[in-house]
Structure formats: structure tokens, C-alpha cells
Amino acid sequence: MIQAKHQRLVLILSAVGIILVAVFLAGYALREQASYFYTPSELAGAGVGPDQAIRLGGMVQQGSIQTAADGITVNFIVGDGKATIPVTYTGITPDLFVEGSGVVAEGRLAADGLSFVADNLLAKHDENYMPVELEGLDKEAIAASTAAGAVRE
Amino acid sequence: MIAEIGLGLLWFAAALSVMQLGLGIMILRDRESASASAFAATLRPIAVIQGVMVALSFLCLIQIFWVTDLSVKLVATNSHSLKPWLYKLAGAWGNHEGSMLLWVTVMAVSGALVAMLERRISQAMMIATLAAQAFVSIGFYAFLLLSSNPFERLVPTPPEGAGLNPLLQDPGLAFHPPTLYFGYVGLSIAFSFAVGALVTREVGPTFARAMRPWVLGAWIFLTLGITAGSYWAYYELGWGGWWFWDPVENASLMPWLAATALLHSVTVLANRGALKAWTVMLAVVAFSMSMVGTFLVRSGVLTSVHAFAVDPERGSFILVLLAIYIGGALALFGLRASTVQEGAKFQFLSREAALVANNLLLMGILAIVLMGTLYPLVTEASGTKVSIGPPYFNPASAIFFIPMVLIMAVGPMLRWRKSDKAQLTAAAAAPLLAGAVALLLVVIFGSGAGILPTLGLALAATLAVASVMPLFRSKTNRASLPIWGMVVAHLGVAVTMAGMASESAFTKETLVASAPGESHQVADWTITLLAVEPVAGRNWTALEARLSAQRGEGEAIELAPQARMFSSPPTNTSEAALLTRWDGQLYAVLGERAPDGRWQLRLWWKPFVPLIWYGGIMIGFGGLLALIGRLFQLRRTRPIRKVEQASEPTGQTVPA
């Protein structure tokens, strides 16, 4: 029979052990699985490979949304005032996904590295909500490319 | 006038909580003096009056929303005279200020209930508990009164209000925040009990029995809140997913994980007198997770599809509260942990040991979720923006979850204190067989199911069989209500797992642009688009698709997904159409109109997906059974089972 004092020690050691395992595991997985956020201009010099899951954020350029012949694929251009990149997305676009508005696209670079294939689009929920990641964008560039009043802080 | 009365009541209640804390400290410092015992009798009434005052204040806020008094800023920014009555009511807590008032209200009313009903713990511990409760409340009163006054007037009075976010205009969501808050706040009571027990050095079975109903209650509400939130996200966002590992979702999952661990360890302490320091620490951790969750949701520091109240000042306020409460409790724990009595002994192969292992694995999952949720904040401080999603959370948490389910299966069949291998083998045979059969079936028939879903289905079968086995044991352990509660809750976990695994393994999706009259296949359903027509509701207009769904040669059933437009605030929402069958759900979303006039349709067949939420309801119901059982035990005047340590200060003496 284990002594009570030892039992407490065993309990504490196993607790510390489990937490350490969890932390190391998490740390390792986070390095592998975190998807990084870029704006088009940051992406240009980031050296991101085509397999890496990333999030691309910026404004949907005026006049750039085009629906493909199948009716469910959209092509549009995302810009941050300094650079732009074409994006392809297949699926139903979120509410309030409109030209001149902020968008975060989850996905990866196409094999040629020149365009972006999105698996998921996140747009503003309503006129008060803006993806937090877009806050650091050049406000003047946004204002220039956006209908008045569509973006608030 | 009502707004001023509400604010006055709130200040009054805040003053009472300051009094409650001050008097409590005074009495505890000098317990023997005559004045202390005279004051001691006043503490319970103070707590009760505080609860009544805040409840009245909250009623004032509801009244203001009910009549849409636009001269109050909160109403003007969150309500609208044309809103349906349910959302006018829910508007009272569907915003930052109102929800914080709700928080304080629930907390003060719970404190009042403790003061009125709790008779088992010593007077000193009651005083310490009420003082701790007041200490926590004061921070939230300060937060409300200094930075988030819900009764603030707006001059000039606007002609009309701005409305409630249409995504929140949903009956399920109207009651979602209160449900979660009951959970969070229940954990604050458990926290106060733990502080009270540490201060008076009375960490023992009596403390555990006093704390247990609160932990159970909090856990039930959190369970139901998470289940409802998941279902809301599933049908309201129109993305067809039931869990996104969104920071706001994690904010409610983390306290649930801690509360689940606490619930199991408090049972060990109440029944067997073991795991004393561990239980106290879990109570601190559980409430800390409520606070972390509140901080994450309220501060606006996170990128989330449903974060609200973006306000750095408020975020730092909650961060300070977080530091004071958690830091203070951990410091107290550090000072007093060594004086907590040694718990009763148990062997490696015993119910206690299984519960400890389960607790540790839950803490492992909690650590994984916490790190994944906070990591983006940490990297953001160094200028890198990242997002963490299912590719991280799913495998990392599964590593702890899978062994936990196995322990969950055998644990209830082990004896307290000491079991033997023969008994374990006999108990594990049937569940393992069920798991093996399920595994075989999935491998043969469910081609293409991934590793995790396959394992999930096998484990669900194992756990389902194991869960009901305690009902068929010898008469020495005849099934009391708490045992039934455990059986139902564990079975609920199996049911939820089966639903999750089935949905991720076998969902079929069809995404098309469809002209009226065209038919499309998803699984064995044929869906025909009949027409798309405009319709109007009370405060919205919509485009509604009429779809006809036919399964094989069966009868055609009409479905009507909508794309809704709200004018105030201007927002679009997607109302998915759901068709539930015994073996799954058909899910249809109407998208945009393509330039050539066709309509985008997204169709899913999700086999057994409702099991996810049925299981959640079962888990909560199991908790309810246990809670009712415990409350009945309270009423019964039978002698307390003699398992306490001889050194228990409460007086019951028996060798372990």
C-alpha cells in the first residue's frame, strides 16, 4: 500500500507531468499548425510555399468580383493599398461580402504562387464588425477604395 | 425615472457588498470577541438584501427595454421599437452592459441563496465564504458602475433605436447568454466556498458537500449553454459546422472542462475524504477559466466571428480583475495548501485513481485549448498574426480525449479505495467487445472515414455499453438518482461522440448554381429548385427558395431556405432549411444569384448529426438527476456516511 504522503507526491508529479506533456505537445503543434496572417503586400515578400495554410486579409477591389461560368466560383482581387493578389473561391460567399469591403480569406497560394485559393471567406458581420486582423491596414488606402461609411473602427 | 431607480439600487447593492466584505474580515480577525459574534448574525441578512437589491435593479433594466425607453443610451443603441417582444426582453442582456448587470445579479442572488439555505458548514466558514463572494462581486460592481453603466441617459433622445444584431435575433440565442452566465457565476460560488474553506482551514467532506450542488448546477448550465451555442452556430451561420474552435466557443469550453474535473474530484472528497488540496485548486482553476473566458469575449482582443464589445479600456479592467482574483486565490492556496490535511489513501487500481487520471487528462485538454486560444494573442504582441484552427485543436485534444474515454468507461465499475484485476477484466470485456465490433463495422462499411472519426465511433460504442453497466451491479450498489445521473451523462457523451464522428466521416455535400426546375442529388436525396420568391417578416425582408426534397421514391417534402435582409442595423443573414430524419439531417442554404440568373444552392446530408445535441442534452439531464438526488439526500435526516478523517475539525470521527 502506498503511503499517503507518497500518494500526494505521485499525484503532484503526475499533474505536472501531464501539463508539461500538454504544453510541449501544444507548442510543437502550434508551430506546425498555426496559419499565419498576411496582407497582399506582406505576402509578396514572405516566401510562403503553396502547401502552407495562411490567412489573407485586405479589401475587395472595386469592380473585381466575377462569377465563373459554373455559377459558384468567384474570382476577385484583394488589395491593401500597396499590393494586390487575385483570389479564387468556390462556394457561397458570406453575407456582406461586397466590393470595397474587408475580407479575410483562409486558404493557400496556388501552385504558381501568383494567386490565392480560398477554402473559406470571412467578411464583416454587420457594419459594426470588422475582422480585427484588418485593423492594422493603411486606413487611407482603405478609405480611398471603399464606399463612404462602410468601414468604421 | 426608472433608470435612476435602477442605478440607485445598483449603488446600494454595491455598498452592501463592501459592507459584507469589511464585516466579514473584521469578524474573522477577532473571532472570539463579543462584538464579532454580534456582527456575525448580520452577515447573512446583508447578503440576502444585496441579492434582492440587484435583482430589482435588473428588473428596472428589463422594464426599460420592455417599453423601449430610447432616452436610455443602452436601449437606443441596442433596441428598436419594432422588434418582437422576445428580443426586446432579451435585449436587456444581449449587450455588454446588460450582460454584466445580469452577471452581477446572478452572482448576488446566488450569494443570497447560500446565505439563506446553507446550514452544514461552520459559521466561520460561512462568514469567510460570504466575504469572498462579496470580494468577487465588488470588482464587478466597480466595473459596471465605473465603466459600463447600463442606465446611462442619452441626450437628446433619438427618434428610433439602432436595433439588435439580427444574428442574435433567434429564440435560442435569446436565452443563450443567461444560460452560460448561470454556469460562470455558479463557479464563482464554488470559488468562494474554496476560499472560505482555505481561510478557515476546513477543507474536508463537509465543505465538498456544500460546494457540490453549486458545481453541479454550474456544470449543467454550461453544458446546456455550450450545446445550444453549438446548435445555434450550426443552423444560424449557414456554414453547416457545429464546432469551430472559435475563441468565443473556447471561452465557454474551458470553464466546462475545469468544472467537469471539479465535479468528479468534489465527489471523491465528499464520499471518500480524499483529493482535498486538488479539489480546492480545481475550484480556483474553474473560476479562473470563467474569468479568462469573460476577458476573451469582452475585451475585443480576439479575432472571432462572434466577438463583441470591442473596447480596450474594458478589456484592461477585466484583466485587472482577473489578476486580482486568480492571483489572490493562488497566493492564498500557496500559503495554505501545506496546512490542508492529508486525504484518505487509495490504491492504484481504484475508483479514486480512475477519477484522478480522468481529472489529469481533462487538465491536459484544458491546457491544449488554453494555449491554442492564447497563442494568437502572444504572437500578436510580437507583431505576427496567426490563427489557430481545427488542424491544431482536433489532434492535440484527441491525444488526451481518447484515453479519457477509456478510463471513463472502466472507472465507474471499479470499487472505491481498492479493486482487483479480475474485477477490472470482467467489467471491461463487454464494452471492449462492443468497441471492436463497431470498429470492424466502420472499417468494412464506412469506407473513407478518417482515423479520428473511426476511432470516435468505436469509442462511442465502448463507452455506451460501459455507461449502462453500473445499473446492473449487485444490490449493495443499487442505483440511486446520482448513479442514474452518471449513467445518463456518460451515455450522453457516447451519443455526442457518435454524432460528431458520424458527421465528420459521412457528410455528403453538393454545391451548385441551379435554375428553377433543375434537380440535384445529395446522398440519396433528390432536391428540386421550384422557385425563388420574395417574402417579408416583421422587421426583415427575404428571398426564399422553395425546394422539393425527395428520398428515393418517397414523398416530396418542401424546404424553404431564406436569405434575410434586416434594415436596422443593415445586415443579411442566412436562414438554412433543415429537414430532420431519424438517421440524419438535410441542410439547405440559399446563396447569391449568379449573373446568368441561376441561384447558388448548398446542400448537405449529415448522417446522425442531431446526436451531437441530443447527447449534450442527455449530459445536462444526467447532471440534473444527480443534482436532484443530492438535494434529496440533504433533506433526508439520515446519518452522514462515516468516512471522514479522524482529524476533521467538523467533528465526525471515524477511521478511514
TrEMBL record, chain A:
GO terms for molecular function: heme binding; metal ion binding. It is found in: Cell membrane; Membrane. It comes from Alterisphingorhabdus coralli. This is Cytochrome c-type biogenesis protein CcmE. Pfam families: CcmE. Coiled coil: none annotated. The chain crosses the membrane at residues 9-30. One of its GO terms (biological process) is protein-heme linkage. GO terms for cellular component: plasma membrane. HAMAP family: CcmE (MF_01959). It is a single-pass type II membrane protein. Belongs to the CcmE/CycJ family. Heme chaperone required for the biogenesis of c-type cytochromes. Transiently binds heme delivered by CcmC and transfers the heme to apo-cytochromes in a process facilitated by CcmF and CcmH.
From TrEMBL, chain B:
Keywords: Cell inner membrane, Cell membrane, Cytochrome c-type biogenesis, Lyase, Membrane, Transmembrane, Transmembrane helix. GO terms for biological process: cytochrome complex assembly. Residues 93-299 form the Cytochrome c assembly protein domain. Required for the biogenesis of c-type cytochromes. Possible subunit of a heme lyase. The keyword Cell membrane applies. InterPro entries: CcmF_C (IPR032523), Cyt_c_assembly (IPR002541), Cyt_c_biogenesis (IPR003567), Cyt_c_biogenesis_CcmF (IPR003568). GO terms for molecular function: heme binding; heme transmembrane transporter activity; lyase activity. This is Heme lyase CcmF/NrfE family subunit. The chain crosses the membrane at residues 6-28, 48-66, 100-117, 124-146, 181-201, 213-233, 253-270, 277-297, 317-335, 356-375, 395-414, 426-445, 451-472, 479-501, 611-632. One of its GO terms (cellular component) is plasma membrane. Belongs to the CcmF/CycK/Ccl1/NrfE/CcsA family. Residues 319-630 form the Cytochrome c-type biogenesis protein CcmF C-terminal domain.
